[in-house]
Amino acid sequence: MNSLLQEWEERLIRIQETIDEWLKVQAQWLYLESIFTSEDINQQMPEEGRLFATVDRNWKDVMKNTIKDPHVGSDHDVSKN
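RE: above sequence
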């Protein structure tokens, strides 16, 4: 019983850490999105604009995949141990 509780606690901590990191990324993404949606900025900083476009696509893909499979930790069911 104790190991099951410890596994759940570890899982919940990892989930919380992941969400915390997502929130940090989202805050930065929102800040940068407003900058790099400006055509003027993209003309002045084309390489940075391309890099942001890549990050933008990756971030949106991560969030789309999260929406498609919202079952956190569904790949390992610790209650079966």
